[in-house]
Specification:
alpha/beta; Rossmann fold; about 15% strand; 8 strands; six-stranded parallel β-sheet
């Protein structure tokens, strides 16, 4: 059931890294801005510090849950239904939340917005930068380049998990069903390069630019 209130009810989804960063500040600012404008906001979050408490057996399952977390799917779907969520706004899904959050929203016929804070959708290392130089190898030559260079946390296994996640959800068409907020025109341009060669991995009509902001109050 959808909310009957005049302004959409929003679920913000964010996977915190172990070291706090700018994305966390954006999440806080977005939540406050939406609430200041009359929206009710619910937050679903996980924190990668949870990884330190996992058993060896649980860590063995991480490569699979990074691709699709059943826990996330069930928990987010339950929140959407119980709270009558209208929009799911995702900030970060790595490592614990995973792209399964999108499918929880799809199953409830709720729109999904993904804020693109970095280049991870086209570069497992997220920066388009390697060994002191700009690197766009994964865009032009394929994601296998990241595995060869251990681009995520200098780990072949963790990089492989990122690559499998990207390739799986590109194949499934996950990314073309999402709306995107890019922070700059350059960010948007690089994101859409994933469609090189006539592919339609991301729908250009669903990509918008909205810079980050800070409150002056």
């Amino acid at each position: 059931m959808k909310s009957t209130q005049l302004k959409p009810k929003i679920l913000i989804v964010h996977n915190y890294y172990q070291i706090p960063g700018g994305e966390d500040t954006v999440v806080e600012n977005e939540k406050k801005m939406l609430e200041d404008h009359g929206h009710e906001v619910i937050v679903y979050s996980r924190n990668n510090s949870e990884l330190q408490k996992m058993s060896k057996f649980q860590k063995l399952g991480l490569p699979f849950s990074t691709v699709f977390s059943i826990r996330t799917y069930r928990e987010v779907k339950r929140i959407i239904k119980q709270q009558n969520i209208d929009i799911v706004h995702v900030h970060n899904t790595l490592n614990l939340i995973s792209p399964s959050v999108y499918y929880a929203a799809f199953s409830c016929k709720v729109k999904v917005i993904q804020t693109v804070h970095n280049f991870r959708l086209v570069c497992p290392g997220a920066l388009l930068y390697r060994d002191g130089n700009i690197c766009e190898d994964c865009i032009h030559k394929g994601l296998r380049c990241a595995i060869f260079n251990n681009c995520y946390r200098d780990s072949k296994l963790q990089t492989l998990a990122c690559v499998i996640t990207l390739k799986t959800h590109r194949f499934l068409g996950t990314y073309k069903n999402i709306n995107y907020i890019c922070l700059t025109e350059f960010n948007k341009e690089k994101l859409l390069e994933v469609n090189r060669g006539g592919k339609k991995i991301i729908d250009p009509k669903k990509v918008f630019v909205k810079p980050n902001f800070t409150s002056l109050n």
